[in-house]
User: What shape does this take?
Amino acid sequence: MVKIVVINDIHVGNIHSVCSDKPIAEGKRYVPNKSQKTLLKGWKECIKMVGNAPDIIIINGEPIDGNNKKGFSKELWSQETVDQVRDFKKLFDMIPQKKDTKTYLTRGSAYHVDIEGTPIEEFVGDYIGAETYNNLKSNYHLQFRIHGKLISFAHETGYSKNYPARGNKLAAEWTTHAATAKSDNDKWNLSVRAHIHQINTRSFGPKWQGITCPCWKYSLGDYFERHGPSTTPSDIGMTLIDVPRDGNITYEFLIPKGVELKNKVINHE
Assistant: This one.
């Protein structure tokens, strides 16, 4: 059995995202807000759900929030990327690991994790001791063949603003891939995506499954709220994938309790 833990869209550095209990911002102690304390509690709960140390940890994009150009950098508890990376490592070190646990990173959206052409995941990979693949610490696409099954990891995926149709992009991506694959052996058995901060699943029978995974950032702030009250809430959590020797891949979304956002309602009696 190969046990894989997938964590993505952590966005450390944003005031609406998870952080450690003692972040340091530009040399001074930052006090986490109520939402961040709730998310940290959920983070610790998920780690308990993971149980024994995994064989592989995948950070599937955006361990930090970076300068977040789309949010105009207004919602950061530190403008310094190094503060965000250091605090991400505190969270990463909470994950159970054994001597031969291997960690891999993929690259997220450029407006979060690209600083004038430098992908910050390269630095993060060095900082947490991640594996090198394709001559880099992070790439846009990571593939594993495990017990004969091909698994594809990437951060970004297309999505529809029509919520019921959001997962359809997973299917469109796979059908395009399947049509261009040289053989059945080169077709993904499972594709794992992030970016949209929500859980979606699609499948074509036993041949292929595709999922988008939960995140660690609430749908709050200007970027989300300016689009109106119908913004779909984020799913918070991690993803656990098991690949037994018979190749029958299973996955589970690890969702902590008590992390759902409550609607903001003003009562007038």
